[in-house]
Design a protein that fits this description.
Elements lengths: L1 H4 L3 E5 L6 H14 L4 E4 L5 H11 L4 E6 L1 H11 L5 E6 L5 H6 L5 H10 L2 E9 L2 E3 L2 E4 L1 H8 L2 H7 L2 H11 L6 E5 L2 E5 L1 E5 L3 E2 L3 E2 L11 E6 L4 H13 L8 E6 L1 E5 L5 E4 L2 E5 L2 E13 L2
Parallel strand pairs: 1-2, 1-3, 3-4, 4-18
Antiparallel strand pairs: 5-6, 5-18, 7-10, 7-16, 8-9, 8-15, 10-13, 11-12, 13-14, 15-18, 16-17
Length: 290
């Protein structure tokens, strides 16, 4: 009887690879959800968004993203404008949004949270109309994502990004113009956060509240080896916002421009190139939380 009354749930899973380990993870999730949910697997980029859209049309009340931040981002874009609730099963290699919400990486524990149906309304942001839940980056980190090919990532893993970062840091950084609610400023690298965390358990956006109706903006004025090392140390110790060459503020709308060809990413996925308009919509997304 309880199962008959439970919300209809669709789990969208990104197998991530065709390895035995990936097949084992799919089998684990299939066994975990059992008859309590419909499991659908993605086959390539864009699949998760399309499956999420169809799930909404078919009347599913809960749509679960089983994967990393990239899968979550696609699912969120598929849910945009609907009343469906987002659930998380963190099976990806990078799960910053799950960390942000306090979702455990243990899948059994995460599934129990989904079945408990505790819902929180959080803000939803867009960059040139593309939704994101955690952050958007302009300049350095997007350049690293853009230049790191999939083959290198498969062979070297996270080290591939470090190698690309070393090359990017040696170049002259772009000049970015950042227009916000109270004026404008300039910088070499900009990150806009909906939540607190960046690239893992690092609190880059120290004053962020994922439900306050504002985005937190961090503008870095320099991009070179020494500056990046100093910034990283600052983030680790929570003092980077005190640096004279770092600006930190809140805004509901931000426009980032440049005379150069500069890429931007959202939730770790490359989306396009500047200019970019970023907006936030208060309490526009319902998420299942602990």
């Amino acid at each position: 009887m309880a199962n008959a009354q439970a919300p209809r749930t669709c789990v969208i899973m990104n197998p991530a690879a065709r390895s035995q380990r990936a097949r084992d993870r799919v089998a684990q999730v299939r066994k975990l959800v059992g008859r309590d949910a419909t499991l659908r697997l993605t086959r390539g980029p864009g699949d998760a968004e399309a499956i999420a859209e169809r799930a909404v049309q078919q009347g599913y009340e809960i749509v679960v993203a089983a994967g990393g931040d990239g899968t979550i981002n696609e699912v969120v874009n598929g849910l945009e404008g609907s009343n469906a609730k987002l659930g998380l099963l963190p099976t990806g290699t990078i799960n910053v949004f799950a960390m942000e919400l306090g979702i455990p990486f243990d899948l059994n524990a995460a599934w129990k949270i989904i079945k408990a149906h505790k819902v929180k309304k959080i803000d939803l942001a867009t960059a040139n109309g593309h939704c994101f839940v955690q952050l958007a980056g302009f300049g350095l980190d997007a350049q690293i994502v853009e230049r790191t090919d999939s083959e290198t990532k498969n062979v070297l893993g996270p080290l591939s990004y470090l190698l690309t970062a070393t090359a990017v840091a040696a170049e002259t950084p772009p000049k970015l113009v950042i227009k916000h609610d109270k004026g404008q400023t300039e910088g070499s690298f900009v990150v806009i956060g909906n939540g607190r965390l960046y690239a893992g358990p690092f609190s880059l956006f120290t004053e962020a509240d994922i439900s306050d109706g504002y985005l937190d903006v961090c503008v870095f004025h320099q991009v070179n080896y020494l500056a990046i090392i100093r910034y990283l140390r600052g983030v680790l110790f929570g003092v980077h916002t005190q640096f004279s060459d770092v600006e930190y503020f809140k805004s509901k709308h931000i426009r980032v421009e440049s005379n150069e060809r500069v890429p931007f990413e959202v939730d770790g996925e490359l989306i396009g190139h500047l200019p970019c308009d970023v907006h936030v919509y208060k309490h526009a997304l319902q998420v299942i939380v602990p």
